[in-house]
Design brief:
- The protein is of the alpha+beta class.
- It has 15 helices and eight strands.
- Among the domains are: about 170 residues, Multidrug efflux transporter AcrB transmembrane fold (Up-down Bundle); about 40 residues.
- Helix 4 runs antiparallel to helix 10.
Length: about 475
């Protein structure tokens, strides 16, 4: 290396690197540093292969780490800790699906037992697990896995699964009450409502079809939701059309005939009141129609003016980042000292809010630059059901303390709401050949945005 020629002439004279510099062998100076939960450390990321089961992968990794702790004699002061476990979110959503399915089944059973025969109630409620089974059987053939997005589709549609079954069961029950044998009542009851039932399901399916036409990363991200919803609706419809009538038709008439359900008197009273209300509305149909139209317009106006649109809300977010930069002439050690002050603020949060945090000094938040005056802190929050603060409240807490302590960082944040990486709400590119003009325009745009009330205005320019 010392003999590398850096300049020479025609006479054969040369200036070598050793003539102008001293070359020594040694360890390269750090260009970035990592701190884990406020202590020096390093991290290892494990990524699952495509098609792998995240729950199985995480279980295997945890088992291997525990075995390593047992087999290896770790030096004092050295510890292994889990920083980010993405299977937790999947487990939470699986539990939500299971709890909603069980709760829905129990509630449907209770309502149906109150208003219908016990056998009818049972086979009507059976539509929930059958629809879920159809969806779970169908999604592998459509190259869909059980993940946070597909589970969201399951959760969305759970409340719609027994609507068609209830309509058909009620029609068959009415035919049985009129004295028809079970098989004839099943066929007659189904034939009377089959068209509106199918129309209802098709209408619901069409309501989710537009999600297939969403463009960009949002469309790619959400495409699994309508697929899962449609599969479950189709499964529920198949159960209502082919399984439910067969079981009710072959169940036979109970000895002594149909027993009046506990809610029969309540239903009779409601029907009488509904009949009087309907007659009142029909007599004054102009006034009622006008009132309904006025209410619809007011509701739409209220929704447009008051209801805030947020594609991916961050209420239950479990990951967030705080990042920033100090003065251009700051070295890595000086930046790390200031980052440690931010760490102390994070550590002052109430117990149980933060699961872990990792501070990387010397790197830009998007990984595009490695400079000694940059820092990035990733916070892994406890599950939303186990902490007392939302991600937004954590951000407000941290930044208010940062301002109070006058930490010399130009800082920003990002909260992962579970959606695709869509960037900031407003992004402007300044393109041109003359750097001076670009920087002047960039500075003017930033000032104009801040004067309009925009916050966290940042640029990727580094002097």
């Amino acid at each position: 290396i010392e003999r590398i020629i850096i300049r020479s002439n025609d006479a054969g004279q040369a200036i070598r690197l050793k003539d102008v510099a001293e070359v020594k062998a040694g360890i390269e100076a750090m260009d970035k540093s990592v701190r884990i939960n406020g202590k020096p450390g390093m991290y290892l990321g494990v990524a699952a292969r495509e098609g792998s089961d995240i729950l199985d992968v995480v279980e295997s990794v945890v088992r291997r780490v525990e075995q390593f702790r047992t087999d290896e004699n770790l030096p004092a002061g050295l510890a292994l800790t889990s920083l980010r476990d993405e299977s937790i979110e999947t487990k939470i959503r699986l539990n939500i699906v299971l709890q909603n399915a069980v709760a829905g089944f129990v509630l449907v059973m209770a309502v149906l037992f109150f208003f219908f025969n016990r056998r009818i109630a049972f086979w009507t409620a059976a539509g929930i697990p059958i629809a879920i089974a159809v969806a779970l059987i169908g999604i592998p053939f459509l190259d869909i896995t059980i993940n946070r997005i597909s589970l969201l589709g399951l959760i969305v549609v759970l409340g719609m699964l027994v609507d068609d079954s209830i309509i058909i069961a009620e029609s068959i029950y009415t035919e049985m009450q009129s004295g028809k044998p079970p098989e004839e009542a099943a066929a007659s009851g189904l034939s009377k409502v089959i068209r509106p039932v199918i129309s209802t399901v098709i209408t619901t399916v069409f309501a989710f079809v537009p999600m297939y036409f969403l463009g960009g990363p949002v469309g790619d991200f959400s495409m699994e939701i309508p697929t899962v919803v449609i599969l479950m609706l189709v499964g529920s419809l198949l159960e209502a059309l082919f399984i439910l009538p067969v079981h009710l038709g072959h169940a036979g008439m109970p000895e002594g005939g149909l027993v009046e359900p506990p809610g029969a008197k309540l239903i009779a009273g409601l029907e009488r009141r509904y009949s009087r209300l309907l007659q009142y509305c029909l007599v004054r149909r102009g006034f009622i129609a006008g009132s309904m139209l006025t209410g619809l317009v007011l509701a739409l106006g209220l929704g447009i003016l008051v209801v805030r649109f947020e594609m991916f809300p961050v209420d239950q977010a479990w990951r967030m980042w705080i990042y920033g930069k100090t003065r251009q002439d700051s070295n890595l050690e000086a930046t790390e000292r200031q980052a440690m002050r931010v760490e102390s603020i994070v550590q002052s949060l109430p117990a149980g809010v933060i699961k872990s945090f990792t501070t990387t000094t010397g790197i830009k938040w998007d990984g595009t630059q490695v400079l000694p005056n940059l820092f990035l802190m990733e916070l892994i929050l406890s599950p939303s059901t186990e902490r007392s603060m939302s991600a937004e409240e954590i951000k407000v807490f941290a930044f208010s303390r940062i301002r109070e302590q006058k930490i010399p960082f130009d800082m920003d944040y990002y909260i992962d709401g579970g959606g695709p990486p869509a960037g900031k709400p407003i992004e402007i590119q300044v393109i041109g050949n003359e750097n001076t003009q670009r920087l002047a325009l960039l500075d003017q745009i930033q000032k104009d945005l801040e004067s309009l009330g925009a916050t966290n205005v940042d640029s990727n320019y580094t002097a």
